[in-house]
Amino acid sequence: MYALKVLFFFLFLPAFLFPADKKNSIPGLDDSKLGTTLPLEMVFTNENGERVSLKSLIDKPTILMFVYYKCPSLCSPMMTDVAAQIRRVDLNPGKDYQVISISIDHHETPADAIEKKNGILSSGAAGLPPDSWHFLTGDSLSVKKITDLAGISFKRVGDQIAHPGVLVTLTKDGMISRYIIGPKYLPFDIKMSVYEAMDGKTAPTIAKVLQFCFNYDNESGSYVMDFTRIFGILTLLAAAVLMIVLLRKPKKKNLKEGA
Prior knowledge:
This protein is of the alpha+beta class. Helix content is 37%, strand content 20%.
């Protein structure tokens, strides 16, 4: 009994010594925003200096990234990794889906955006259609509004901005259909999230099979094999086969005399 009390003491001690921070006090992801539809009437500035609404851009499944273009740490490796991984996805960027980056630093300009875009398209994303990846900037109010709605919180620390390395997958109507937690990503996760975001479209059969065999794990932010579901199906199939065998098995004739 004493050992049990000691165990409970050490289990609950961190809760008293390190109380949870208040909401939005630290950068992170609020995944309760899953299913939220972003206001597509919001207007930002693209890498060419043109004012564009999200509605004019989002007409297909979209991978949305909240970064900033002069980021010295997380953002560049994050965007480079996304660029490398989407080249390995057997879908057509610009046709089946697209990528949009929105700067969380309202001080950044279209010049910063086009510089970053050119750098990405000439390295990891070489060969991608230029119109398959948009780089946007916006004023502080617009940035705050869309990040809040998307469940993304960030905080300026000195001359840098701390933020989560998360991809937000949107349907063509702007609904958040999935989060993919980084900063490293798998082509499979990206492909599956795009299929999920296909609103009103029929995914290839193989995608439906994959969606059946894999579940999205909220903690890891990736897809994991659903062994329970697969084992259950295999059990049912085995039972069905056994039943068919028993029903089709010919009855043995009674060869005893007098039968």
